[in-house]
Specification:
The chain is an alpha/beta fold. The chain is built from 8 helices and 7 strands; from the N terminus they run H-H-E-H-E-H-H-H-H-E-H-E-E-E-E.
């Protein structure tokens, strides 16, 4: 399922969406799913979306989770070492290193908040959820982001399914088949943008 670019421009540029009107106490986090086999097309659509929104005068940050992890490894002076000595690492050692330096609470979320910019940014589009699996999972990002951290809406583009139960819990299914633990805390739930209407 690819998304309708015109509809997304309409929703994400709407003053009510940008001002987070009607969210009550919900965190301004949104998930927009897409079919995993449409990764390349979806990436191009997100890039076009950022350009279109910017042309409307909206300050947009387009960030990729994989790029944020690489930046963290580079800042810690580990990236070159990993690349040059990749064959000497066991799979478990490499996984543990990537998992440690992409840990949402200690590394990724502080870097993400900084990359989102100051008060001029009105919207962040976040990609790369599939590229950082399995050492970083989207539900851990949702659980680590606190409401006070977000001053504008954040849209996470997710290759898979996002299911919300009537009881208030949520599930993310990466690539449509890999389930994640249930997200129960209402402060960490994201709004499903597939069903969002202005």
């Amino acid at each position: 399922m690819a998304f309708d670019l015109e509809h997304m421009v309409h929703v994400l540029s709407h003053p009510d969406f940008l001002s987070m009107k009607g969210l009550a106490n919900e965190v301004p986090l949104f998930i927009r799913t897409y079919a995993p086999d449409k990764e390349d097309a979806s990436r191009r659509l997100v890039e076009s979306l950022a350009v279109r929104l910017s042309s409307k005068g909206i300050t947009v940050k387009l960030l990729d989770l994989f790029d944020l992890v690489l930046a963290e490894l580079e800042e810690q002076h580990l990236l070159d070492d990993i690349l040059q000595n990749e064959t000497s690492f066991t799979r478990e050692e490499l996984f543990e290193t990537l998992q440690n330096y992409s840990d949402p609470k200690t590394h990724l979320i502080p870097r993400l908040i900084k990359a989102m910019g100051d008060g001029d940014t009105r919207l962040t589009l976040l990609t790369g959820a599939g590229r950082v699996y399995p050492y970083l999972r989207t539900h851990t990002i949702l659980e680590s982001l606190q409401p006070a951290m977000l001053r504008h809406p954040v849209v996470i583009f997710f290759p898979g399914e996002y299911v919300q139960d009537p009881d208030g819990g949520s599930y993310l299914r990466l690539f449509g088949s890999i389930p994640t633990p249930k997200i129960n805390n209402p402060y960490y739930r994201a709004t499903n943008l597939d069903n969002f209407r202005i």
